[in-house]
Amino acid sequence: MVLPRILLVLLLAAPVAAQSPSEAALAAAKAAIRAQNYPQALAILEAPDLAQTPELLLMRASLYQAGRGVARDDRKAFRLTRSAAAMGSIEAQYNLGRLLLSGRGVTADPEAGRRWITKAAEGGHIRAAALLVNLLQSAASPAPAPRPAQTIAIAPVRGSDISRRMGWTPLMEAVQRARPEVLESLLPEADLNAQDAEGRTALMLAVSADNISAVDMLLRAGADPEATDKSGTTALGYAAHTGNNLVVRMLLSAGVWPDIPNVRGQTPLDEAIASQHSDTAVLMLGKRGLTLSDDLMRQLWFLAAENGTQALLEALIAHGATCDMQDVQQRTALDLAAETGNLVLLRFCLPAATPPLLVRATRAGQVAFAMELLAAGIDANAASESGNTALLIAAHKGYALLVEALLNRHADPDHRNHAGNTALMLAAENGHREIVTRLLAAGANTGLRNKQREQAQDIARAAGYPELAALLE
User: Fold this and answer.
1) Residue 331, CB half-sphere, CA atoms under 13 Å: how many?
2) In sequence order, what are the beta bridge partners of 332?
3) Which position has the higher pLDDT, 399 or 111?
4) What's 460's domain CATH number?
5) Residues 275-308 pLDDT 10s
6) Distance CA 42, CA 28 (A)
7) Segment 146-173 mean pLDDT
8) 3-class SS at 383?
9) What is the largest CA-CA distance in the chain?
């Protein structure tokens, strides 16, 4: 039997290599559905010569589930969805999980539904991730009846040096091997909080491996989410390092607090920010009832100065951070941001910016940071303790664009540092011809001498730039 006439016409009209038959069928069925011609859409999708894809199966399932173009058939919709899920479609896995939870088209099976929702969440399905968190948080969700231990034995690793050295239990090995069926069979009898040689529990290993289904099973089975390893780190500390926000939500829902320090004084919040998982830190800061000590707030604020996002800075401000907070060396977060080039923090705290930041940023090579300070109207002639202005430093390092911007903001081309050197002398010493030319155009004085009685031309000649020396004569 051949494909329906409309599909053949579509295929013949299209370029030979433009679409596969399945893609063409999908497009034709969508067009028929938009025209509310559901029988035609179903005829296209059920053509016997058509190779089925997850997308085609899901579209057929939706027609049977809604009773469009055919009598409603929840059982058939379930079977089609299950087939698409088995083919790896995360959308189908999400739909299948919901059908199993609701019992539509099949006997309700919350456990199986949760597993499919978890699988879809692991695949990156956003709605599945949100639903899984809701399932974990819902007090109305009945705890599953304990299943009798099955006789599934995990393959021993007696020859594995790692297993012996780390002291992994069978439960831990099941997590490491990503064997959910073995893990489930071991849960009723296993010591859920046993620790390996480093003090890690099965839950910590599951979190480290981003094994969401194992995290879910272990938490529901009663694993202690607040257990610590030998360094005092909880499972949430491990999640902060990986940045898996779904796991973080699960652990926060289980009652873990993100402000508990390990033996090094590092909290999960610290770890999230240091690992550049700002969104994870924001999620932790949103935990209801969380209050932060002044010391921890200062610690987090200065970590955020290096790479924090707008959302993270706003969350910290909401918890009491201020732009003028200082560390033990009396530096502000803006001082650190100038060294790391964090423009987000600069823009957030711009009213608190001071002229010395310009020198600090230029010395650190953070040209974009310095340019933004200039655009905000910062004093271009601020000097360091050694008398160096941003212009002298930029001329020395060869930052031509910054030199241009500084001169446009009325930086003094003849300012001398404590050694008597000018920007012209420092540019000449390093052979920066473009900068020397620009400084001359700005009126830089070639006759000035430093404390060694050298002029710019003398410095250029001694540094091996005779042509530049000639330009300065």
Assistant:
1) 15
2) 326
3) 399
4) 1.25.40.20
5) 999 999 999 999 888 888 888 999 999 999 888 8
6) 10
7) 60
8) strand
9) 100
Task: Please provide the average confidence, as pLDDT, over all residues in the chain.
Answer: 85
Q: How far apart are CA 151 and CA 164, in angstroms?
A: 23
Task: Give domain status of residue 42, yes or no.
Answer: yes
383 beta partners: 389
pLDDT at position 376 is: 93
Q: Please name the residues in contact with 180: beta carbons below 8 A apart, sequence gap of 6 or more.
A: 115, 213, 214, 217
Distance CA 450, CA 463 (A): 16
> With 70 as the cut, is the pLDDT of residue 166 above it?
yes
CA gap 387, 287 in Å, rounded:
48
- Pick from 327, 93, 158: nearest CA to 339: 327
Number of H helices, E strands in the chain: 29, 0
The rounded distance, in Å, linking the Cα atoms of 430 and 396 is 7
Q: Residue 191 above 80 pLDDT?
A: yes
Q: Higher pLDDT residue, 213 or 152?
A: 213
Q: How far is it, in rounded angstroms, from Cα 134 to Cα 151? A: 32
Residue 342 has pLDDT above 50, yes or no: yes
Nearest CA to 132 among 90, 180, 172? Answer: 90
Three-state SS letters, 190-212: CCCCCCCCCCCCHHHHHHHCCCH
Domain boundary among 137, 161, 193: 137
Give me the number of domains the chain comprises: 2
3-state secondary structure of 389: strand
Is residue 12 pLDDT above 50, yes or no? no
Residue written as token pair 């052979």? 431
**Residue 462 belongs to some domain of the structure:** yes
Print the domain residue range for 98.
5-137
Nearest in space to 125 (alpha carbons), one of 246, 304, 209: 246
Beta strand extents in 140-195 (DSSP E only): none
